[in-house]
Structure to design on (424 residues):
């Protein structure tokens, strides 16, 4: 059975591609190793923030189907790999899923197939890792018998303005013909396609984007620490600096960095640089600064309690928002977890509230969910805002809490900073 598009990996990157593919009339099959994911999608249920159940229903009506079995895929003309690329225990790249997906793609491709890797990785992965796997499994030659390219995913979960369709799509092929084939495909589902010289430049573009954000967030996080000591409102300074119409882009401090991109992607670049025999000092320093923010948040919360004659040991601490980003359910690499671990280690009695997270556990131990937020805010010894979901009336919460620690700078300049309210 002929299939236009096979998407391997049905997560926050793969599913938007499936949706856009079905919208333009492509026959699309999704492959994932998770039976729960596949059964849920085939049953009309979405498991990612950016797609609703209605979106999945429309995809199914357009002919989409998901499977865990290679034998049920058919013969795809285009294969796009959208699998996770986490860090290993040694903080290097874990490409286990990319290898497995490449082997699957190699067994399914035929002459003329276009294979695209979208999973974030270090420069050289497409040519040095994926290409040999595809060629061995298929017996065909990349750039001759089939097309191979890299196209970095640029999905921003929860972004109401930019999605796959209206975000420029970078593509870099193994050969000019490979690039042209990838550009033709993405031209169907994206408004603008940007051609890179090769897969390496496309791979580097993704890492450059996120390393840029990583080091600038580290800069303001370090500034937040010493501005507190100097009695300077960094949030107000950022507001003022942002009025400059050129040469400045605002970044904001916070309790840590989360998601896949910022805490993980720059490490892929650092790993590649280390293979050359020297460290990528800028990235490693930024990682060090951002990684210590959860500890700094806990220290500041303890200081706030101490000023009011309350020790952290035995204090009732309420965490507001445990996802990595505002108004979504995604918890990947959320700084809420290391903050919670440190609070528990110091004897805090912990509770949390998040409208997007019905259950939450730290190292396998469930954390009590605050069901009556109004009551919990009043009775907690300190309320710590970690994620400013739009459902929260922060001014009311701050006014009713015994102590309120705002790590997102949402109340600065609103007259709520005082002895009972503190901003990071």
């Amino acid at each position: 059975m002929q299939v236009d598009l096979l998407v391997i990996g049905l997560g926050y990157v793969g599913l938007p591609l499936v949706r856009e593919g079905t919208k333009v009339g492509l026959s699309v099959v999704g492959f994932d190793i998770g039976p729960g994911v596949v059964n849920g999608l085939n049953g009309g249920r979405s498991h990612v923030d950016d797609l609703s159940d209605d979106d999945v229903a429309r995809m199914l009506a357009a002919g989409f189907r998901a499977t865990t079995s290679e034998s049920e895929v058919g013969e795809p003309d285009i294969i796009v790999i959208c699998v996770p690329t986490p860090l290993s225990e040694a903080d290097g790249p874990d490409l286990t899923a990319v290898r497995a997906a490449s082997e699957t793609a190699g067994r399914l491709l035929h002459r003329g197939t276009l294979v695209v890797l979208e999973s974030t990785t270090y420069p050289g992965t497409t040519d040095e890792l994926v290409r040999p796997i595809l060629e061995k499994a298929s017996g065909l030659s990349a750039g001759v018998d089939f097309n191979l390219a890299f196209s970095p995913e640029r999905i921003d979960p929860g972004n109401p303005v930019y999605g796959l369709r209206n975000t420029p799509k970078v593509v870099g092929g193994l050969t000019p013909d490979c690039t042209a084939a990838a550009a033709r495909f993405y031209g169907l589902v994206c408004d603008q396609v940007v051609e890179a010289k090769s897969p390496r430049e496309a791979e580097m573009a993704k890492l450059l984007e996120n390393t840029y954000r990583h080091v600038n967030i580290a800069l303001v996080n370090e500034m937040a620490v010493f501005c507190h000591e100097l009695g300077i409102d960094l949030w107000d300074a950022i507001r003022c600096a942002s009025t400059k119409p050129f040469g400045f882009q605002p970044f904001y401090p916070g309790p840590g960095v989360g998601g896949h991109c910022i805490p993980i992607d720059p490490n892929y670049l650092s790993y590649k640089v280390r293979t050359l025999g020297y460290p990528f000092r800028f990235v490693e320093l930024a990682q060090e600064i951002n990684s210590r923010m959860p500890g700094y948040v806990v220290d500041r919360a303890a200081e706030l309690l101490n000023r009011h004659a309350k020790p952290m040991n035995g204090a009732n601490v309420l965490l507001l928002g445990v996802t990595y980003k505002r108004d979504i359910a995604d918890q990947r690499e959320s700084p809420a977890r290391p903050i919670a671990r440190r609070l528990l280690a110091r004897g805090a009695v912990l509770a949390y509230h998040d409208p997007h997270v019905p259950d939450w556990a730290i190292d396998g131990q469930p954390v009590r969910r605050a069901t009556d937020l109004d009551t919990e805010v009043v009775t907690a010894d300190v309320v710590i805002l970690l994620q400013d979901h739009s459902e929260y009336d922060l001014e009311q919460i701050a006014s009713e809490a015994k102590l309120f620690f705002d790590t997102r700078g949402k109340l600065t300049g609103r007259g709520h900073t005082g002895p009972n309210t503190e901003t990071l």
In short: Residues 182 and 224 are 44 Å apart (CA to CA). The domain at 2-197 is CATH 3.40.50.720 (Rossmann fold). The chain has three domains: 2-197, 199-291, 293-424.
